[in-house]
């Protein structure tokens, strides 16, 4: 029992140290992207789900680890998505890969403000009342994820779906900011960075 508490204290201390010294989190970068869009009027080791955390919380516990992804854990990748400033053309490392469906959604934040259009990505397990089958565009569901403020509890409309796998990636933006456990990227948004 004493070892268990010592482990928790050590882990908590490490988290405090890293959060004080680290760069922007994926949540902060996502928040900046959403704020910018609203202002402009534009639309290694395999980790289990309960081990992957970032400032926006843990990944859902019922995720299935991908068995044969194109980019296994530890793969060096180049990112071609532009979900946030400095992401496109950045290089990173895959830290987790899961088999699920990713959804592009539109929603009105619970904190007020303009509708967020075409947000990429929330996954199947982050939507309330989702069944086992992928959902069709146009369906409305409540978001259980809190990637950015005002997201959790908002009603989302499914815009499109991308059937897995989905990737969690650590990367450094093209502007030099470190991002840990970025959720989510789909396979078409990354390529091998190894030559």
Give the integer mean of the pLDDT values: 79
CATH architecture: Roll
How many distinct folded domains? Answer: 1
Biggest β-sheet description:
6 strands, antiparallel
**What structural class is derived from the secondary structure elements?**
alpha+beta
The tally of strands reads: 12
The percent range for helix content is: 10-25%
**Whole-angstrom Rg:** 17 Å
SS strand fraction: 25-35%
Total DSSP helices: 2
Question: Looking at CATH, which topology would you report?
Answer: SH3 type barrels
Can you tell me the overall shape? globular
What characteristics describe this protein?
single chain; 195 residues; alpha+beta; SH3 type barrels; six-stranded antiparallel sheet; four-stranded antiparallel sheet; 2 helices; 18% helix; DUF1541; DUF1541 domain-containing protein; signal
What do you see in this structure?
Keywords: Signal. This is DUF1541 domain-containing protein. InterPro entries: DUF1541. It comes from Ureibacillus terrenus. Pfam families: DUF1541. There is one protein chain. The protein has 195 residues and is of the alpha+beta class. The radius of gyration is 17 Å and the shape is globular. About 24% of the residues have low confidence. A hairpin with an 8-residue loop joins strand 6 and strand 7. The protein contains two helices and twelve strands. It has one domain: Roll (SH3 type barrels), CATH 2.30.30.
